[in-house]
C-alpha cells in the first residue's frame, strides 16, 4: 500500500477485555485493514481465548475424555454415599445380630434351654434382621459396579496416555507463548487507536452468579495490566464489606480473597476503583469517599455540592443510586443531579487527588428516566431502562457540550440492571444483573488523523 497523506482513516474496531472472553469456538476475527503513515498494512483483529487449538481434534477428544471422567466421578460419589449409608445400617444391626448368634449357639448346644417364649423372642429378632437382606444384595450389585468402574478407569488411563504421547510431538507451550505475546501487542495497538464513538455492544458473558439482586463489581480503571485484582460489593444500602480477589480466575471460583471493612457505609452501587483507591458515596449524604486499599484507610472525603442523595434523584431502579462514580480514558467522574438543575442528569469531572469538581455539564436528560449510565472517552451513554428491552438511548459529548439520541442494542439478559460501568483499561462494560456478574465487549468507531491534526473541544 502507498503512504497516505492527511486523510481520515475510518476504522471499526471491536475491543475486548483481557484478550478477552470470546466464545471457545471463535477463531481470529479480522474486522478491517488499512495503512499507517509509513505505508505499512495494519489489520484490526480480535484474538480468541488463550486456547489456540480449540478446533483441534485432540481438543475434542480431551473434552470427551473429561466428560467420561466426570461420569465416573459421579458414579463413585453415588456409590460412596450409598455404601456409607448401608454400612451404617449394618453397624446399627450388629448388636442384634450378635445377640441372635449367641442364642442360636446356646440352643444348638442345649435344645432344652430354648423355651417357647425364648423361641418367640428369637423369631422376632430374626425378623428384625430381615431388612439386612436387600442391603447385602445391594452390596453384591455394587461389587459388580466397582468392577465396571475399574475397567472404565483403565480405559481412560490408556486413552489419556495415547493423547499425551500424541501431544508430545507439538510444542504447545511455545505456541501459547507466541499467542499471548501477539495478544499483548494487539492490545497495545488498540490502546494507541485512541477514543471512539460507541456503535455496538456484544452479547453478555456471565462471569459468575453470586450475591444478592443488587451490587457492583469492578477492576481498577487505570493501573497496569499486571494488577488483575477484582473487587465485589454486594447490596446497595449501608454495606461496608468489600471483597478483594487476587485475579479474575479467583473471582470466578470465589476463592483467594481478602475483606476490607469500610469505616463508613456506602449508598447505591455507583462505586469505582481508580488508581488503587475505591471511590464511593457515603450513606445518607452527598459525600464522596476515597478509600485506599493498600493503606486500608480513608484518604479523602468531600461533599458533592448540591447533589441529591437518599433516593432524591436515583436511576429508574431506585436503590440510593443518586451519585454514580465512574472513570474513562480521561479521568474520574460523577453522574448526579440536584434540585437547582431540575432533576436533570449532571456530569461532573473530579480531581482524584482532591475530589474537587473540575467542571460540570448539564446533560438535560432526566436522571430518574435513566436506567443506567456509563462513560467512554468523555461521552456519557444512558440506557432508557434497567429492565428487559433496555438499549443505549442517549449520548452526551463533553467535548462539544452537545447530545444526540442513540439506538445501540443492549441485551439485558437477566432483566434487572443495578450497575453498568465502563473500564477503560479493559475496554469492556461491567454489569451487575439480577445477581449475575456480566461482561460486555464494546465496538467503537475510531477516527484516526494521518497528519496529526484535529479540532479542539467545543464549549459546554
Q: What labels describe this entry?
A:
460 residues; alpha+beta; six-stranded antiparallel beta sheet; four-stranded antiparallel beta sheet; 24 strands; 28% helix; disordered N terminus; disordered C terminus
Characterization of this structure:
This protein has five helices and 24 strands. The chain is of the alpha+beta class and 460 residues long. Strands 1, 4, 5, 22, 23 and 24 form a six-stranded antiparallel β-sheet that branches.
Number of strands: 24
Query: How would the global form be characterised?
Result: elongated
| Beta strand % | 25-35%
H and E string: EEEHHHHEEEEEHEEEEEEEEEEEEEEEE
Number of DSSP helices? 5
Measured as a percent range, the helix fraction is 25-40%
Largest sheet: 6 strands, antiparallel
Rounded to the nearest angstrom, the radius of gyration is: 32 Å
Q: Indicate the low-confidence ranges by residue numbers.
A: 1-33, 46-52, 449-460
Taking the alpha carbons of the first and last residues, their distance comes to 41 Å
Mean pLDDT across residues: 79
Task: Decide which structural class fits the backbone.
Answer: alpha+beta
What is the element layout, followed by pairings?
Blueprint: E1 8-15, E2 29-35, E3 41-46, H1 57-109, H2 116-129, H3 132-167, H4 172-192, E4 196-201, E5 205-209, E6 215-218, E7 230-234, E8 241-245, H5 248-253, E9 257-261, E10 272-274, E11 277-281, E12 287-292, E13 297-303, E14 324-328, E15 331-336, E16 344-350, E17 357-366, E18 373-376, E19 379-383, E20 391-397, E21 402-409, E22 417-423, E23 428-433, E24 436-449
Antiparallel strand pairs: 1-24, 2-3, 4-24, 5-24, 6-7, 7-8, 8-9, 10-11, 11-12, 12-13, 14-15, 15-16, 16-17, 18-19, 19-20, 20-21, 22-23, 23-24
